Amino acid sequence: MNDYVEGRLLIIGGAEDKKGECKILKRFIQEAGGKESSVVVLTAATELPEQVGAEYKELFERLGAAQVKVLDIDERTAANQDGVVKDLERATGIFFTGGDQLRITGILGGTRLGRTLHRLYQRGVIIAGTSAGASAMSDTMIVGGEAGTPKKDILTMAPGLGLLHSVVVDQHFAQRGRIGRLLAAIAQNPNVLGIGIDEDTSILVYADGHFTVVGSQTVTVVDASTTMASNVSEISPGQALVLTPVAMHVLSDGYCFDLRKRTASVERVRT
């Protein structure tokens, strides 16, 4: 185990292609076992679980999954039931839909289902999440905040699922202009990496601590660990931040990043 990750994750920036090539979702099925895969879709984040669950069930079946089970867990008592825990234990791939990330952590955190999720992850079952399901992967997640100029205290953050360590993830990144709020997040602890994932784009994170970009847009990695000047402890809420220097990597499909070494590859791999 390393400092960042203990298994495989597919973290999707939202609005992934569901009608064309479906490259990201197809890769999820491949990583889950292809024609032998047993997928569980967790709809805890959404307020439209039947509609969203049915959509992903049809998609994953069309993409070749052997079995797809939708678990509509909307309260903590349901997340402690024997039946849902057994359903999850059969999974070779687990998928979190979008919605509200606080619903994911508020419903699953500390429950039997939540603990089972962690055990399966450590055994090698791939965990995927899109949009809110992406943000919830890390120890600390962004749950709200302003776009635009990076300022102190423009964010609302909360504990996440704790599957990815020392990283904070933001999604719909370029499409919603979220570079400012990602910088504001890492200013609070410059040793934490910021990863912004565009729509229809994902990172496939491996247990050895590296990830590969899969999708049509880009992933932005922001590293402030070498920052020599920051005013975050001196300014008042709402004032503009200083953070310098900051390293930034912008990566597209097939490019890799080593979380432990904080370095990007210079050669593209086939995805």
Describe this protein with a few key phrases.
271 residues; single chain; globular; Rossmann fold; alpha/beta; 9-stranded mixed β-sheet; 7 helices; 4-stranded mixed β-sheet
Walk me through the structure.
With 271 residues, the protein is of the alpha/beta class. It has a single domain (9-259), classed as Class I glutamine amidotransferase (GATase) domain (Rossmann fold, 3-Layer(aba) Sandwich). The protein is built from seven helices and 17 strands. It has helices spanning 23-32, 49-62, 82-89, 101-108, 112-123, 132-135, 179-187, and strands spanning 9-12, 38-42, 67-71, 93-96, 126-130, 140-145, 155-159, 167-171, 193-197, 201-205, 210-215, 218-223, 229-230, 243-244, 247-252, 256-258, 263-264. The longest helix is centred in the first third of the chain and has 14 residues, at 49-62. The protein is globular.
